[in-house]
Amino acid sequence: MTELSKPLIVINFKVYREVEGPKALDIAKLCGSVSEDSGITIAVCPPSAELGFVSRNVSIPVFSQNADPHAPGPSTGWMTPSMIKASGAIGTLINHAEHKRSMKEMAETAELCKGCGIASIICADSVELAAQIAQFRPDMIAVEPPELIGGDISVTDADPDIVERTVNAVKEVSRSVSVLCGAGVKTGKDVKKALDLGADGVLLASGVVKAKDPRAALQDLVRYI
Ligand code: G3P
């Protein structure tokens, strides 16, 4: 697996209209350019339909937005960890609040990811769930309170406690699992606060994808690191 240096900024493109077709690569290239200028690792999660196209055309880390607990074989329409790896992506989100999974599915998918050498970022909506997920030893856990997703108030302001407590709870289970936080993160100040609270990075979407000027938004995100 490609080493991901911390702090890490992960931009989830979701399935916004702004990233349909070749526009996904345009935003991914902007992320690459700001990453190169700043020296900060910026990873991207393009929509599934553009995963291979983006992965083969940028040098920053690319993650799938989802992976299914399926091995290669006679199944239709699934996103296998093996195919994600073959597409050139280096990892995947699992259990995003907008693509929920059972504990069993999360565990199986995390194992398949390990087996084929891709990184896993499992999302959690609470400290308790994050601590349980840490038992699966994913590479990262991203804590995101669902009610703050897509809003204008960053989790780091609205609920700093969930970030700090998730970091502590996860590190108690395993120090090798990194912790990201997300929901409403939009500015460099939000990123700085996340790092001050002990997170290894952030996971965000609308702050970049829906920004009037995505390059300026990206430049602001890395400003205080
Ligand atoms: O995956 C990141 C996401 O759920 C947070 O979305 O728009 O609040 O940054 P947003």
Task: Give a written overview of the molecule.
- The structure is a single chain.
- By secondary structure, the protein is α/β, with parallel strands linked by helices.
- It is built from ten helices and eight strands.
- The chain has helices spanning 23-38, 51-55, 81-87, 103-116, 127-134, 155-158, 160-173, 188-196, 206-209, 214-221; strands spanning 8-12, 41-45, 63-64, 91-94, 119-124, 140-143, 178-182, 201-204.
- It has an eight-stranded parallel beta sheet with strand order 2-1-8-7-6-5-4-3.
- β7, α8 (188-196) and β8 (201-204) form a beta-alpha-beta unit.
- The longest helix has 16 residues, at 23-38.
- It is globular and about 45 Å long.
- The chain binds SN-glycerol-3-phosphate.
- SN-glycerol-3-phosphate (G3P) binds at residues 12, 96, 144, 149-150, 182-185, 203-207.
Number of strands: 8
**Residue-averaged pLDDT, rounded?**
97
Order of helices and strands: EHEHEHEHEHEHHEHEHH
The fraction of residues assigned to DSSP E strands is: 15-25%
Shape: globular
Main sheet overview:
8 strands, parallel
What is the straight-line distance between the termini?
A: 25 Å
Record the SSE blueprint:
Elements: E1 8-12, H1 23-38, E2 41-45, H2 51-55, E3 63-64, H3 81-87, E4 91-94, H4 103-116, E5 119-124, H5 127-134, E6 140-143, H6 155-158, H7 160-173, E7 178-182, H8 188-196, E8 201-204, H9 206-209, H10 214-221
Parallel strand pairs: 1-2, 1-8, 3-4, 4-5, 5-6, 6-7, 7-8
Helix pairs in contact: 1-10, 5-7
The structure holds SN-glycerol-3-phosphate.
